[in-house]
Amino acid sequence: ARIGVLISGRGSNMAALVYAAKRADCPFEIVLVAANDPEAGGLALAEAEGIATWAQSHKGMKRAEFDALVDAQLRAARVDYVALAGYMRLLSPEFVTRWAGRMLNIHPSLLPKYKGLDTHERAIEAGDRVTGCSVHVVTAELDDGPVLGQTEVAIVAGDTPDTLAGRVLIAEHQLYSRVLADFVARETTPEWIVAKVGELAL
Ligand code: GRF
Fold first, then answer.
1. Quick check: 126 pLDDT over 70?
2. Domain count along the chain
3. Quick one: average pLDDT of 17-35?
4. I need a labelling partner for 99 at 20 to 30 A (CA). Which of 85, 89, 150, 154 fits?
5. Angle, to 10 degrees, between the axis of helix 161-185 and the axis of helix 12-20?
6. Could you name the active-site residues (predicted)?
7. Is 106 in the pocket of ligand 1 (CB under 6 A)?
8. Which run of H or E residues covers position 3?
9. Which atom of ligand 1 is nearest to the CA of 168?
10. Is residue 200 part of a domain?
11. CA-to-CA distance for 9 and 87, rounded, in angstroms?
């Protein structure tokens, strides 16, 4: 399967997908890395790996207008599935519908806990002993789609949001490629996913 990855920053999850795709038995390849920030650190990394990149700032553009540009890039690259990897931008309903059932996201919490930002800070403040990361199918609601896989990460006494983020990131890098591989290799979309995502785009 052909994957387009959307990033906004350093792109370590994108890199983990790129490295996973190098294994002979991996059922996906990364064919495009697109960013809504030309300064995103992950772009140089993708270029060095010989992957096509596209970047443009979304500033001054309407959400749907910018997303249409991204969609045009994904189509031109004949992308089958979209992987959001630290893409820090809400997507327009049109874009979400266009990729319904074919777009995944990774989120640094055990969803449905701590949707949105500052997940590690919130987990520590709540006194949680365990947090983790989740990969889910993207729906119109933020961090709300069907969860495909999670990894738990223990919170250690003295953890700060930064130390915890560093350990959860290790788990993210392993989880994302595994879940994506299973997702693209499946023969049919399970009913429980269809029920939550609605009409699947083709
Ligand atoms: C990751 O923790 C991801 O879960 C979150 O933002 C971070 C992105 O990191 N949404 P990177 O750009 O993949 O290194």
1. yes
2. 1
3. 98
4. 150
5. 40
6. 107 (proton donor)
7. yes
8. strand 2-7
9. 2
10. no
11. 8
- Give residue 130's domain range: 2-195
**Reported confidence tier of residue 12, pLDDT bands at 50, 70, 90:** very high
What does the DSSP 8-state code read for residue 159?
-
- Residue 197, pLDDT above cutoff 90: no
- The minimum-distance atom of ligand 1 relative to the CA of 108 is 4
CATH of the domain at 125: 3.40.50.170
Residues 6+ apart with CB under 8 A from 21: 3, 28, 29, 30, 177
**pTM for the full model?**
0.96
Within 8 A by CB and 6+ apart from 123, the residues are 109, 113, 114, 131, 155, 164
Helix (H, G, I), strand (E, B) or coil at 89: coil
Q: Is residue 86 part of a domain?
A: yes
In a domain, 112, yes or no: yes
Q: Which of 149, 153, 160 is nearest to 111 (CA)?
A: 149
Helices (H), 42-201: 42-48, 63-76, 93-98, 119-125, 161-185, 191-197
ipTM, interface predicted TM-score of the complex: 0.97
86 in contact with ligand 1, CB cutoff 6 A: yes
Buried b (16+ CB within 10 A) or exposed e, 22-43: eeeebebebbbbbbbbeebebb
Ranges of H-type helices in 1-83: 12-20, 42-48, 63-76
